[in-house]
Amino acid sequence: MKDGTPLIIGPRFIALSSILSREGNKRAAEADNILHLSEVHPVQRPKLVARQLSHPEANLHPIPITSSHAYRIYPKDEFRPGMIIRGILHEQDYIAASSGSNITITYRNRTESRFGPICTKWRKMIVLCMFQDHYTAVPIFTHNGNDLMYKKKPEEYISIKDHRTKDEVPPQNRHGYLVTENINADIELSDVNIKAHITYSLPRKYDLPIKKEGSLMTDSLNRLITLFNYYAPRPQKPRK
């Protein structure tokens, strides 16, 4: 205490702390069991939504880091264009902000801030350009297994083919495929509908934790760079 009087912690305080601790652990455990919609079978999704709506406190607990989500900070000299990584991506929750959207962000992926809701997800990305203090990467999407038919500019995406797959699925547009190589043994086979968003490059610091997953073949990396240079917006000339 400020006046020098020792702070005496009685048995009631200890008991209360124990109760609060057990309750906090219980809620955290419940939060850990709440999955994202894309992680469950479509038949079970209605039950999952109802469960998430009944557990809004899940948003207050961090997503646990398990062995399947192992990641760390890598030195700059280990980054290469074409490297496929997985990291945590925080973005403004534009879906919740759109009144015309019929998609709902799950509580597990959404965090409230004084600036508005933030959507946080594990995101696979392809390293594209490297700079002094940061790199840019294009994100990889599954769009919940949907193709590009609902995208206004499907030409801004390109399909990705896992070199380990035996499925023969046609590419989703005229760009063809980006083909992977050297995928780590602990990485699950990629969805046949995954695609890279060519024009949506994201800046990231080297000191952000990631997980290395593999890389693109050299000719696929060259194709991605060519498409990026083609579709990247050109600076407009100032008006006179």
Please characterize this protein's 3D structure.
By secondary structure, this protein is of the alpha+beta class. 20% of the residues lie in helices and 25% in strands. The chain has 4 helices and 9 strands, in the order ααβαββββββββα. It has helices at residues 11-32, 45-53, 94-97, 218-231; strands spanning 83-92, 110-113, 116-130, 134-141, 157-161, 177-181, 195-197, 202-205, 210-216. It has a 7-stranded mixed beta barrel with strand order 1-3-4-7-5-6-9. A hairpin with a 3-residue loop joins β3 and β4 (134-141). The longest helix has 22 residues, at 11-32. Mean pLDDT is 74; it is low at 1-69.
Highlighted features:
disordered N terminus, 4 helices, 7-stranded mixed beta barrel, 9 strands, alpha+beta, 240 residues
Largest sheet: 7 strands, mixed, barrel
Number of helices: 4
Based on helices, strands and strand pairing, what is the structural class? alpha+beta
Overall shape:
globular
Radius of gyration: 22 Å
Averaging pLDDT over every residue, what do you get? Answer: 74
- Helix and strand pattern: HHEHEEEEEEEEH
The helix fraction, in percent, is: 10-25%
> What's the count of strands?
9
Unreliable stretches (pLDDT < 50, length at least 5) are 1-69
Strand order of the largest sheet: 1-3-4-7-5-6-9
Strand content: 25-35%
Spatial gap, N to C terminus:
69 Å
